């Protein structure tokens, strides 16, 4: 009985081993078909090269500044008086209008007193002139008749002889005359008039304010003419000419203006190696402080093409398409802008890649974009 159990146990073990071995053979004999990867052919946009004349446009930017600007400072002391217009920011004035008026009542009285003294002094010498210098008496008499104390003191008559000059100077008339003119000159500083039509861009005082000598009162600009200061690389400095037309574009890129190069700084900035140019522009819509972009036509490059900078490889090469295969050719870049590059040594009629291709390499199989409207970027091939 025990022998029988042993035999059955051995047979069971052998059957299990045989089953495992058979399963292993079955697994090894099974062939798993390998997956065939789909070959992806990328679609590329191309263009046929036609060399021509490419204008080299140097871009620069900056903010508009009024060409004529006047900072208003007080040279005398007094109370600020209201004029015909409020002294407020944004107030417009015509040429010759009073911008600022400072109370000069007390000083005006001293000027009138000095004028009166001069008039009396000249009157006192008239009898001596009639007797001793009858030939010059008429012109001094005419001067007294034209003398108006409420107007600016007229120039003294021209002295034609040394005797006349010594006599007039000895009586202190010259000293008094120049003293009066000095007072009148200072009196004129109590009123500031607009030298040109414009607008007040800064007002630091109001009516009734006590103004002190040397105090800044405001700022006045001419709204007719503006300048744009731009920094241009010294490489293109020699290409700029005074009077050359320049296209200006506003920040929103909705409107263009035409300016001209007004001045070019003769010194190169040592830090940035740039030259400062000033572009003058006239337009009623412009305001000071507006951001503008200037496109300066520096020169023209012949037998060249212009492409996106992203298409130029670090090895100074670009991709071309030959029989649906990508290839590279050597080129010579002659000008770089922010987004474009001007190239030479590109043969006419060759097909170049117009837009960057991700993962592109020489020998890559590609499909040219169908101009009839194909929009597929890739295609699977069995």
Automatic annotation (TrEMBL):
SUPFAM superfamilies xref list: HlyD-like secretion proteins
GO cellular component: efflux pump complex
Top-level division of the source organism's lineage: Bacteria
Chain ranges of the Multidrug resistance protein MdtA-like barrel-sandwich hybrid domain: 84-217
GO MF annotation list: efflux transmembrane transporter activity
Pfam families assigned: BSH_RND
Protein name: Multidrug efflux pump subunit AcrA (Membrane-fusion protein)
């Amino acid at each position: 009985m025990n022998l029988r159990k042993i035999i059955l146990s051995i047979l069971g073990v052998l059957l299990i081993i045989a089953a495992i071995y058979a399963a292993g053979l079955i697994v090894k004999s099974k062939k798993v078909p390998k997956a065939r990867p789909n070959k992806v052919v990328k679609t590329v946009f191309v263009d046929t090269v036609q060399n021509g004349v490419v204008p080299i446009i140097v871009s620069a930017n900056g903010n508009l500044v009024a060409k004529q600007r006047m900072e208003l400072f007080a040279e005398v002391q007094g109370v600020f008086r209201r004029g015909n217009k409020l002294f407020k920011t944004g107030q417009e004035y015509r040429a010759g209008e009073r911008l600022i008026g400072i109370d000069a009542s007390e000083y005006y009285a001293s000027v009138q007193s000095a004028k009166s003294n001069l008039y009396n002094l000249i009157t006192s010498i008239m009898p001596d002139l009639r007797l001793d210098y009858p030939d010059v008496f008429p012109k001094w008499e005419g001067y007294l008749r034209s003398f108006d104390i409420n107007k600016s003191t007229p120039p003294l008559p021209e002295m034609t002889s040394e005797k006349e000059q010594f006599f007039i100077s000895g009586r202190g008339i010259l000293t008094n005359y120049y003293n009066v003119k000095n007072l009148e000159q200072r009196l004129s500083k109590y009123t500031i008039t607009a030298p040109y039509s414009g607008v007040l861009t800064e007002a630091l005082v109001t009516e009734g304010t006590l103004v002190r000598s040397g105090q800044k009162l405001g700022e006045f600009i001419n709204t007719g003419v503006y300048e744009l200061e731009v920094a241009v690389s010294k490489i293109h400095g020699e290409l700029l000419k005074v009077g050359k037309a320049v296209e200006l574009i506003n920040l929103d890129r909705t409107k263009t203006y035409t300016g001209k190069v007004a001045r070019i700084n003769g010194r190169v900035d040592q830090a940035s190696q740039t030259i400062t140019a000033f572009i003058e522009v006239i337009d009623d819509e412009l305001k000071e402080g507006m951001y503008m972009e200037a496109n300066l036509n520096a020169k023209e490059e012949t037998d060249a093409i212009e492409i996106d900078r992203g298409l130029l490889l670090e090895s100074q090469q670009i991709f071309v398409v030959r029989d649906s295969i990508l290839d590279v050719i050597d080129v010579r870049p002659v000008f770089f802008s922010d987004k474009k590059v001007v190239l030479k040594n590109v043969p006419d009629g060759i097909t170049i890649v117009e837009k960057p291709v991700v993962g592109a390499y020489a020998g890559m199989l590609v499909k040219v974009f169908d101009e009839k409207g194909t929009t597929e970027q890739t295609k699977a091939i069995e």
